[in-house]
Amino acid sequence: MSERPAGDIIVQQDELAAKVRELAAEISRDYSDVEGGVLLVAVLKGAMFFVADLMRSLDVRCEVDFMAVSSYGSATQSSGVVRILKDLDAPIEGRHVLIVEDVVDSGLTLQYLVRNLRARGPASLAVCTLLAKPAGRRDADEVKYTGFQIPDRFVVGYGLDFKERYRNLPYVVALDDLDG
Ligand code: IMP
Ligand code: MG
Predict the structure, then answer these.
(1) Range with the lowest mean pLDDT among 72-76, 86-90, 91-95, 135-139?
(2) Ligand nearest to the Cα of 131, by number
(3) Distance between Cα 39 and ligand 2 center (Å)
């Protein structure tokens, strides 16, 4: 049984690699002088490959921590009601925090995360997302780094799933069939 789903490839493997290096160079520049370096807060599970690749390309003091959240809703649509499944290991007060996300769709999950983390008193808070869909742009002020602006379609691969499948694909593909 092949895991290659039917659909258009939206971002190729080499484009992902090039963009990650580009973003890492920008982040390294922006955080080169900050006290304590940058703390990457990766949102599980979708951002797992992105944060691993991004962090390996950073040329600045950095640490990583993880959060897992689940947004109530269907498999393909977020409701904005978010539950924390795994919280950060350590406080972020006074730290320069960069949230690392796989995709901003409606922006509701991110909005919740930003509010939640801001209340903990970080020195600064910004967001780096690999993918952004058109709808998410409205209240996404904190999104300082965006890898790719993509069409309003459901995509999988490079960490992103459909019902936990397809995370292992090395590229990003828009699923033709959302019934499976
Ligand atoms: P939002 O709250 O609508 O911005 O959705 C955010 C979360 O929904 C992301 O962190 C993903 O986990 C998931 N999501 C949104 N769009 C997609 C997609 O196209 N493929 C896979 N997961 C998605
Ligand atoms: Mg997901």
Answers:
(1) 135-139
(2) 1
(3) 22
pLDDT band at 75 (very low <50, low <70, confident <90, very high): low
pTM: 0.94
* Nearest ligand for residue 109 CA: 1
Residue of 41, 77, 127, 160 to test ligand 1 pocket, by largest number of atoms within 8 Å of CB: 160
Domains along the chain with CATH numbers: 9-174 (3.40.50.2020)
| Angle of the 48-57 helix axis to the 13-30 helix axis, nearest 10 | 60
The answer, yes or no, to whether any atom of ligand 1 lies below 6 A from the CB of 122, is no
Which residue type occupies 50?
Answer: F
Q: Which of 177, 179, 170 is nearest to 12 (CA)?
A: 170
Q: What is the rounded CA–CA span in Å between residue 110 and residue 106?
A: 9
**And the tokens for 161?**
């799933």
Q: Give the CA distances from residue 91 to residues 19, 88, 95, 97, in Å, rounded to whole numbers and listed in that order.
A: 30, 7, 9, 11
